[in-house]
Fold this sequence. Notes:
Blueprint: H1 2-16, H2 28-40, H3 48-63, E1 67-74, E2 79-86, E3 96-97, H4 103-111, E4 115-116, E5 132-140, E6 143-152, H5 160-204, H6 209-223, E7 228-235, E8 238-246, E9 252-256, H7 268-276, E10 280-283, H8 291-300, E11 304-312, E12 315-324, H9 333-338
Antiparallel strand pairs: 1-2, 1-6, 2-3, 4-5, 5-6, 7-8, 7-12, 8-9, 10-11, 11-12
Helix pairs in contact: 1-2, 2-5, 3-5, 5-6
Amino acid sequence: MLADTFYAIIITGLAGNISPSGKTGMTSDEVRGSLYTAATSQLDIQNPMQALTGLLELTCQLLGTERAALYELDTGEGSFQPRLSHGIELSELGRVASQFEHTVLKRAINGQRAAATSGQSGALGLPLAPGIVACAPCITNDQTIGLLFVASETLDAFDDAALATLEVLAARAAEIFALARQTAGQTYLLHKLSLLYQASHAITGTRDRQEAIRQTASHLLKATSADICEVLLLDGGSGETIRFRQQLGKSMQQNVVTLVADNMPDYPIHREVLETLKPKTISLRPPVGSAKDIAMLDAEGVATASIFPLATRNEALGLVRLIYSQPGRSITEQEMEIA
């Protein structure tokens, strides 16, 4: 009830600043009703995917458009990525670069207001084109974390009432995005602390080196989606490599192979990790790493490998290699942090 009253006050102010539409024939009361519906229609925010799907359907319903899409800011990529769509396949949508050139995007993001193309020809370069396209920023804490797009090939233009409604819907999308991020962050933190506690307890609970290695590999495989974990120990210039593979249920089947250093694939990236004591990832597609690293990956039949230093007091003791056999699979940022 309190939220409804708050939205009613805000909407009354918005509607008062919007002239009755000459294009749609909406009266001030109809404009106010559209804004109120946009602001108060029930969405299950505890289920972000369902809530955002419902929000896109509501957007098309209120604005009379055929297509809508939600983009979310990917801070790692520095661009907006398509997350959900209505009336168009998500695979047909490309990312929106942070260095945007289109005037509609500039007006929407820089002005933090909804903006629209002035005609059918102005949509070139925007998601959901052709037709007329409107965009509203999803803002939280004065930061644009998403973009809400709508498009139509039957309407002549988006009037002030439509843009105001779109802004309200974008604000609700921002709330859902923010809550989803907060919930994901809390879940990740609990997962991280639990794994680190289990790993620390298991590794320090034994004085047997082989068991400590097995526990290290076991918890790395539990914390990541890697297919294989290899541990390379450097002992007086020689090298011993032990390989572990995941089984269903996260149990471990240990396949031990002992190799001398000369027989171990001598990746350039391995030497860099040992020198810098910082993890690195190399992959075939997209190609990441030196030409020699990528050629050696291909020869091994490995799609992606993440390499970590085993060190104590800034002294390298060996390497850990997490191997991904299937193309397109690799370690995530969160998995990298835990590992």
